[in-house]
Amino acid sequence: MTVFAKMVSNGIGVGIVPESVADRFRHKFPFTKRLLTDPWAKRKICLCFKSQAALSPAMSRLLKFLKHT
Predict the structure, then answer these.
(1) What's the rounded Cα separation, in Å, for the pair 56 and 24?
(2) pLDDT digits (tens, 9 = 90+) for 20-42
(3) Full residue range of the structural domain in which residue 52 is found
(4) How many CB atoms lie within 10 A of CB 14?
(5) Most exposed among 20, 23, 27, 33, judged by the fewest C-beta atoms under 10 Å?
(6) How far apart are CA 9 and CA 41, in angstroms?
C-alpha cells in the first residue's frame, strides 16, 4: 500500500482504496481524499490524488464519471 500512497502523492495516478487505508497514509503522504458516497460504493472507499488541479484530463474524466455514476 505504500506504493499507492507514493504514486498518488507524486501525482502519478489516483487510488480507489478503503477510507481506513487512505487515513493511514495521509499523515505521511500529501494527497486529497474524496469519499465516494454513490449507491454503488457500498463500502467507505475514496479517491486519493495529489490535487484536483494536478489531475490529467483522463483522471479528471474518471473522477467526474465516478462521482456521477
Answers:
(1) 25
(2) 999 999 889 999 999 888 887 77
(3) 1-68
(4) 23
(5) 27
(6) 23
